[in-house]
## 1
Amino acid sequence: MSKKPKEEVAGGATVTGKMHGKTTIRARVLDKDGNVIEDLGVIVGKRTKAEGDRTRAALKRLDKNYKGRRDGGR
Amino acid sequence: MAADDVLVVNTGRELTVDALLALAAVAPAWLQWGVGSAAVTAADTDLDDKTGCNEDRTDATGADSKVANYTYRVVGTITKTVAGAIIREVATFNADGAGGPPVSGGTMFLRAMFDAISLNVGNAIEFTVDTLVTAT
């Protein structure tokens, strides 16, 4: 037989309600003048396959133009 | 006797978002990025790896807002100032941090990882971080 939880003892009561946070992050890459170079869309969170494909394509373009590994980003 | 039942109701969810916004200067709206790839856990208190990430945290405390009643939104831009680091994670904190660079301190609100973003010096990422408060 299971024991009654302490919360049911007279003189005290605890009510537990759940609450969650679901996070979605969108990202855009800007140049030094604030112009959008790439709109990456949703990079964290739920997305459609088409949205995921667009993000991956944009990341590939950024990587292709990345100067870091060739000249240290200068 | 009715069956046990409890729910954080919609007005309670909205109140949570309002409470975050009411924190004003200490709202969890300070953005910082990193290069780490360790899985996100509930016990995290900082970014996984900030090597080469000497950029200050971005103050988005004036740019946080409530969206569709139950979503806490933070919009902030971090500009790359140091070559070499490939950005793989971002976190929000309730303070600008100290020390460094890279800075540390404050309380982390969330940490997220994503596919690597190769960014040249002078370029920036504008993050829009939406946290939907749900009851289930």
Note: The first helix of chain A runs from residue 49 to 64.
## 2
Amino acid sequence: MIRLLRGVTGAAILFILLELATRADLVNATYLPPASTILAATGQIATDPAFLGNVGGTLLAWGLGLLSAAAVGIPLGLLLGSSRRSYLASTTAIELLRPIPSVALIPLLILLLGRGLDMRVLLVAYAALWPILFNTIYAIREVDALARETARAYGLSRLAILRRISLPAAAPFIYTGVRISAGIALILAISAELIAGGGPGIGTWMISNSETGVPRELLYAGIVVTGLLGLAINGLLSAGERRLFRWHHRVRAAQ
Amino acid sequence: MSVRRPLLEVAGLEYRYSPDAAPAIHDVSFSVAEAEFVSVVGPSGSGKTTLLRCIAGLQQPTAGEVRIRGRTVRDVPEELAIVFQDYGRSLFPWMTVRHNVELPLRHLPVSRGERTDRVEAALAEVGMADAADRYPWQLSGGMQQRVAIARAVAYQPRILLMDEPFGSVDAQTRADLQDMALAVWRAHGSTVLLVTHDVDESVYLSDRVLVLSQPPGMLAAEIPVALPRPRDQIETRASHDFVELRAEVARLIRRAAPAD
Amino acid sequence: MKVLRGIGLRVSVLAAVLITWQLITVLVDDPVNWPTFADVIGRFWTRWLTNPDAWASSLAPSLARLLAGWAGAVLVGVATGTAIGLSARARDVLGPIVHFLRAIPPPALLPLFIVLLGIGDGMKAVMIAFGAVWPILLNTADGVASVEPLHRDTGRAFRLPFRDELWRVILPAAAPRIFAGLRISLSIAVILMVISEMVATVNGVGFELVQAQRGFRSLDVWATIVLLGMLGYALNAVLALIEAGALRWHRGATRTAE
């Protein structure tokens, strides 16, 4: 309760400071509009169907990319996590690919796929793949040992062990990987729009607005909306984490 | 026994972890004279560590006060050093043994040369001169506790507080550390207040044993130990007086424990 | 023996991947979109590795922006994180603001920063710093808040002045967490360097990448991606080296604890 109160106080103080800074001409209002103006602009675009269409465009690429990353990353992680040999064999390829900053692939993907949705989805999926893949690999490796030995002693098959023991025990870690990837996916979805333009998206909206010189508060409002979007995505996934894995002590330990 | 002026006085000390909780220690009063070696024993949960932390100024008592040479303690007093039970977590793993011992001296008004001398001397005194450039985690538990004692010795405190300092080492190491602590105490003429749950240890080391009761910790008894010094692990422990005293302290602790 | 076999397996897999790439691209025979491995490496060699002009005109400005921005993030992140970590009240007051700012995908700030700060090096450094600061700040706050209580007590019992307590107790104790934050933030910084150079500049690796794409010079695009991969790898390796030196005690201490 006291924490909530303090948090609200902090936000209120920041709001008032920003408001006063521009009202008292400490900061040029063309650079930083008053906080209340930004807030009003946020309300305005948050109810504007055209802007919401752009948000939808970003979320579509984000969702499809994240889903594809999970669809590839989880099975691949299960395989690499449970077989030492396949892991060894693939680390070289992984270590070659991973250091490539994902945004560097945007120009290449534009050349190969054009500026459409498939390019964005592929880019988002590529960047979102890594946390999911690594969390799955490490989770499967960590779970195993004792639980697996026990299960084998009771005569369970390899597949049954995977399904009944390894997967449930690894699920919280895999989920954490997905949650981390969700944030990265949003960054990449917007990056792709900024650079490639093309279809509707928050990034496309921002770039075109900054070039046509719309009122500054609209740009700020767009940022506030993306921030809220990021908060909402993380909040929803965290809430899901707590609901799904209440049994899992690590969730509580991590709070 | 000659009358020595009290260096440390504890008067009506009480500590509660929260206003509505039962006190962990209640109305504890005693005093320790200059150059005296005093032990506090008691059943587990009798607030021994709480008492020590209040004296060290790490916790503020909820009632009563601690005085050093007549002055009330409000913050950590200057003339005091402390050796914690958990040497593994009280030594800093990112510093060598030498730097661990040196750290508290850095803010004292002593020259760099004297600082180095003090560190060398303290390490030599506890038999750790050769380990100065190693890290704590490269040493055994007993050796780490020696370093912790060297750190306190180098600080040259008037009062040395020790919280179960030999609680987590094996029996032989423990005997060695006890004799080393006695040697250090004698060499420096310092005042030691030691908290322990080991009855033998309290009698073997001390001039006086204070017995705390079961919670809320109150002072249940105060037993002078008039065994001759220097003491010896085998001779002293075999003496009739030692056996008698040990039995008396043990009986007091049993009485202090709750009847269940 | 086992280690050797592991290395052998990895090398042979790597060779297999590269040979497959070479074979497929030769068979597909579409050098514009799918250049062969040999072509890409050849171009990487002539365009970047053995080309001092490209180093001076592209790589150097990129690295300068990257390091300036990242250094800013390190300074602000460690300082603010320490302050927040030391005070539960500061954590409560600033927590929601920090979480909101962190939730903003940094590229979304790019259009605004261009309008406010222009397209100069300063804007890019600010952009990089803004995106890279959060992992450092949060990890530092977390590390500082969870310093072993007995370490703090020991510092207090010996009346260490705050300066000594901060530099010799609190920050070393939090260092493993701080380094974890530094590693994450460095890869974010590389991403932001590239993207800020793609949108607005006249030089830099990101700029070259976009120019190559606009001119449909796909071989240059591939070669530049190889360069960026190597850059990411090298930066990470340097940081890992520094970390290994600074945290030698940590590895030793945790190994003995097991």
Note: Chains B and A do not touch (no CB pair under 8 Å).
## 3
Amino acid sequence: MISPVEVVGLTKTFEDEARGLVEAVRGIDFECRAGEVFGLLGANGAGKTTTLRMLATVLRPTAGSVRVLGHDAVAEPTEVRRNLGFHSASTALYPRLTPRETIELFARIGGYPPKGVKARVDALVERFGIGSYQDVRVERLSSGMKQKVSVARTLAHDPPLLVFDEPTVGLDVLNALEMVEIVQELRAEGKTVIYSTHIMSEAEKLCDRIAILHRGLILACDTLEGLRRATGAHYLEDIFVHHVRGVG
Amino acid sequence: MRRETVRALLAHELRLAVRDRRAVAAAVLLPLVVMPATLLAVRLSTERVDRARAVTLYRYAVTGPWADELSRTLQAVPPERDAGTADGPEARLMEVPASDPEASLRRGEIELFLEAAGPATDTGPHARRVRIHFPADRDVSRDGAARAKAALQEAWLARAEASLRQRGLFVEAREAFPVESRDVATPADRGGAAAGRLLTALVLFLMLTGAAGTAMDVVAGEKERGTLETLLTTAARRSEIVAAKHLAILAVALVTMLLQVGSLLAWLSLGLIRLPPGFAIPVSAATVPALLLLFLPLAALVAAGLLLVSGRVRSYRAAQLFLLPVFLGGLVPALASFLPGVPLRSAVALVPVANVSVAVREVMAGRFDWAMIALVALVTSAAAAGATRLSTAALSEEESLLGGSTAPPPTDGPAAFESRVTAWFAAMWALLFLASGLLTTLRGQLLFNELVVFLGMTLAMARRYRLPLREFLALRAVPPPVLLAALLAIAPGIVVAQGVFRLANLFLPVSSGMLKELAEALRPRGVPPWQMFLLVAVLPAVCEEMAFRGALLYGLRRRLRPAALALFVGGVFGFFHFAYFRLVPTAFLGVLLTILALLTGSILPGMLLHAGNNALALWAAEHDLPLDRLDPWVYAASALALVLCFWIVYRCRTPYPGLRPWRR
């Protein structure tokens, strides 16, 4: 069986005017299993977003490879993106579109069968409770409403793999909780989810397996139980500190 | 490319464009009102000027040994026969007493004076002469001189007739060889020739103004809002995204252009704008398809060019930085139709925009060279395709893709100035443009341009943003060898610039008449050489270096890499010198001066080179030196000498501080 995501020796080097050559991601390997929530845990600047952007083919790897459902991210970027829904704090919505128009647009360009687009939009509007404001422009919605629209947009073309990059950044407690519940529902539906966060409690609650990413390197990758056994620590925060301090 | 995806994206882009209130206002509503209102204002202003000229009194004085006789002769000419100019019937010559006519002329008390030269009594043919003294840089004086000349000719004819009558010959001298001219061109021919020259520039202007807002929004705006990344993570291909955006800009450009043309026609039909009497535009069965064949690829090129700019920058604000060069870079070649003696069957057919301009001129004059029209359409389409390809590549550029700042813009200090420097220079350009129409004397224009626009606004920028003056204007001492090298670079620099001008002339030829006219305009009579030296050499060197290599370079030094910086600052310097055919050599000089500033970190050597260049150009024009007709080896030797001078500067370099690295 093909793994939803296979990452081998993935490296990304940037040229930064202030800092010179920066190795944001340094030869990392990991694999996601079908139907699991795979967590990427790391502090700000650890390389999480860069990794996920390479996975979504927005950035091109300097070295190494990414395969999504057997498709190479460099050779077959369109196929990779067709199988993937990407949601992050930086993937904004079009303020001048309504939620309905937004979902419809992303279903169409995501390759959802044209005849089923309307039914798909209706289903997502229903599922996320968007109905009452489905024809109001996004610029007039609250951040909680926008978040629901954004997730619906991510799911519009019904991809098997979903990538959430720090999805709760900037949300209040209730909206963040709602986001976590949505991810749990998606897992229950059999979707594979990559969930990047720096919030330990979210990772503990959501992730089947967790990769600790620090300064572009994966320091550990296992289930929460496995990580506990390896370090002797109970809380994820302590486990994280244990690994990060080990690197110095 | 999948048609379904492109269609969905195009519908989406158009929906966004229509819902963007600011863009709609800027692209449609404002021009619908502003353009005709401007034309109406121009019409009213022209009518007012005409009315004023119709009642102008041209004051003159007469001096010389037979001044009284000349004065009587002139006053005897019937008013209806001295109309040597285009002004109205109320305009009159009026003699005023002046003990020192030269001084009166300088003080503006008279418009001209006539010198009755030669002996007091007429001793035979060619013994006496009338010299008309007038400052050619004053419109009223120029008109008055023409009227005085016509009046004198009329007086001589009357005298010749009287003399013949005394000898028994009753001949109407002006009827001896009656000359009649007959214009065989129809109003449609004349209208076609006039419209053909303007049409491309007008169409291009309308398309650029209409589509610029949308173009900046579709990529640069999306980067800033974060929606581009959203789009790029979907299954849509880069080429599909670019195609949809290109089509959307194209559609907006065409629609706004058609709306504006419709609006102009409506204003014309309402009589608020009037065409000259007898003006007609010829439209044959072939005109419409020929114009479509030329203008559709042009619209595609405009859309592709705007998209490319939008795709190459990180933010909406940065995109605005490039709008002025894009406008000017597009409009300048669109004026190629004004160049006399440039046939469509020449190298101009390979220059995008300029080729359309010349082809449209030919079409409107009723000349349909279909093979060349097809070639022009092909070249323009190829240029549009090339620009679209570059836009696709730009969408894959990570550096520009993931840029964009969410921090609030600064309001003071260097960072604030850097974000607004181009707006300041756009305002300066507009001010110069307006002043060129309002100020009638060369001296007045030069003083206004240099002291008010360049120096005044540069100091205003420093004050507004509280910038350290010495650093802002790059007023740094340089080693003596650098000054020596700048001095030595003057002569080879001007020769190489003329060589560059000759090369550019291969593509966009300039008539010698036009060059002569410019040279004449730059050396008006009555201005002493030392004043000309100050006005043309010293003042521009000081004020323009402070503006371009001081303020502009300082404002852009962290935005562009040095090579692009030299080209950009040099190009802007060229555009500020208006005359279309001077663009290339002036921009070349601008690039040299910018490189000098980048290598030395100072504007002082540039001031020296600039002043020397202008002084030498003035001197060469005064002595009719054929700098643009030298042997090729002279240009080559000068280029070598110039390189040597810059090598000396490079060896002693003290680079401009705070620049971006030369390479990635």
Note: Chain B touches chain A at residues 4-5, 8-9, 12, 15-16, 19-20, 225-227, 229-230, 232-237, 396, 398, 401-402, 660-661, 664 (CB under 8 Å).
